[in-house]
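User: Can you predict the 3D structure for this chain?
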Amino acid sequence: MVTDLAFLKETTSDNNESIHRLIKMYIEQAACLVETIKRSYDGKDWKKMDQAAHTLRGMLHYMGVEAIKNDVKVIETHANQKQDAADLPALIARVEKICSASIEELKNYLKENPLT
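Assistant: Here is the predicted structure, written as structure tokens:
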């Protein structure tokens, strides 16, 4: 498992409607943010890459996706400093892979824990 919803549950006081709403928002936005990071890196649009990484990092925190929080912080730092680095393509690929896995986990969570 790449997600840990303990923080989200604590923050929402275990309110199922809030949990579902935030998970759905993550599912809708995370892949787009990763795509923005990829396109921004390719086009060297450091500002857009910085903004997308910053937004994604906050979302990862709520969904408990600890495996790539530091990777996203490194991407954000490089973008903020307008600094290309040899490790960025690998970091971006890892972030994309783990984000995809987290989205699938969270889709399954919603199926297994429907609102009543």
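The CA atoms of residues 33 and 56 lie 6 Å apart. The chain has a mean pLDDT of 97.
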